[in-house]
Amino acid sequence: MKTVLITGCSSGYGLETARHFHAQGWNVIATMRTPRVDLLPRSDRMRVIELDVTQPGSIAAALGAAGPIDVLVNNAGIGVVGAFEATPLSTAREIFETNTFGVMAMMLAIVPQFRERRSGVIVNVTSSTTLASFPLAGVYTASKTAIDGLSGSVAHELAAFGVRIKLVEPGYGPGTRFAENGGARMQGLIPDAYKSFAEPIFSAFANPDAVTQAGDVAETVWRAANDESDRLHFAAGADAVALAHAKAA
Predict the structure, then answer these.
(1) 140 belongs to the catalytic site
(2) pTM, two decimal places
């Protein structure tokens, strides 16, 4: 029976991904900054562990408690929407600390285990913003695009050791990365000069037909984790799939 460790399981895509892997019969280690066992099925195949991907000590403790794993899903992330001109560098650094350096830290911590065993899969969850340019998402896009580039490079390095890297690129899902995690830091990032520009964009975001469902992402992460080919990119959600097709055309 295989074991997966998933970061950022307190809500949204991470929570649904943990549930999905468990339903498929895997051992699941669901990690959160503030553990909540009530969110997930009670089972001897489900463990909830505290993990803050921005803290080296927390990473070491979580991986020590987890023991050997077969798949690492780097899902933890935070969002921000706003005009680049109005986004302080301190906010940009906060976004990169979780979305970019947090993923790098988790990879650095697990790669030796996978390389020595000559097996393992790392699934990095990025965003459809890496597939096309979106306004008012410059800093967020930069943090995720960095992981796209890193993953492609490291995939070549680790293939010789039987370790696979996969990228899952979800579409827009309100109530997950942006709306839930970005509220406080987004205050004041749409100054008056940009409001008329931003209004139609936010209206488009509110379109329910353009929303990626958490279940779509969970299923795509599952497929990526079990894919034995050299495929790197997996778009998740109808909007992301459409962008991926347009980019490939």
Answers:
(1) yes
(2) 0.93
